[in-house]
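Batch manifest line 325
LIGAND: KG4
JOB: complex structure
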Amino acid sequence: MAAAHILGIETSCDETAAAVLGEDGEIRSNVVASQAELHARYGGVVPEVASRRHLELVSPVVREALDRAGSTLDDVGRVAVTQGPGLVGALLVGISAAKAIAWARRLPLVPVDHLQGHVASLYLGPDPVEPPFLCLLASGGHTLLLDVRVRGASELLGTTLDDAAGEAFDKGARLLGLGYPGGAAIDRLAREGDASAYDFPVARVPGLDFSFSGLKTALLYAVRELAADELERRRADLAASYQRAIVRALVERARAAAAERGLQRIAVVGGVAANSELRGALAEAAFAPLELCTDNAAMIASAARYGRSLEYPRYLALDAYASLS
Ligand code: KG4
Ligand code: ZN
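JOB STATUS: finished
ARTIFACT:
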């Protein structure tokens, strides 16, 4: 039988990840080594530290993905890798590893856009979401509204003018003394708080774009007004109110975009799609499976099924890109 598995590699930020998809696109393994603890003491991802850690982890993570899939490189027919956007030094580690594996085996390589990877997380799992749909992609690096009509392509409708939604969660968590990364911590703490305690503003920008920086400043002022013991008492209320404001902005704009485009279905992907309040507030939407919301390589391998393969050895000069083109 022809080798038909796809080996995916993802190193765009602070997760070193590798996954194997079977020939029908089923997940055979999905290994994610998070570096979050390494970066926590700095309150955010330090690019140079991330690159070095990827370098240490990429080979063992790829090996583990193959082992868990019960595969060897003989079963792999294509190598997929995140080309961008992300931290260039981090991306280059994954790209170099992917090139080396593909080159040694004379295999084709598929460069994958990280954001298309997030969208392609919807095509994995037992109930794949089929286009057309309006996709809300909310992660640590991006907040996008995409019109998706076919697998593998999308049209950008809106984006953030300043911070990404996940970044707003992370910066808010930092102001509240909750550590990094903060989205999940705010999500947990908010359950004990009163979301109507503070009236944080939802920025109104024209069109289908987002803005979260004013909200972050509003939280900063609210925190500054409180003495240490008061802050301790109000922390859950602040977290709940802050989360409510972010979720409201996401829900409003996603629904407006779907209506404008005549799209019947909304799908949500990216790290912030793990947020429990967002999952409740957009009850009509389809969400990526929880374990596939945050960065992983299964979604990269999934996107590769609809991407452009570069035949051996045309990919040797392949470079990373840092930002959305
Ligand atoms: O997609 P992702 O893993 O990485 C990027 O591509 O950026 O997203 C990470 C982001 C972080 O900002 C993190 O705080 C946020 O997703 N996040 C959450 C939750 N879990 C992760 N935000 C809100 N609620 C959550 N439960
Ligand atoms: Zn991501």
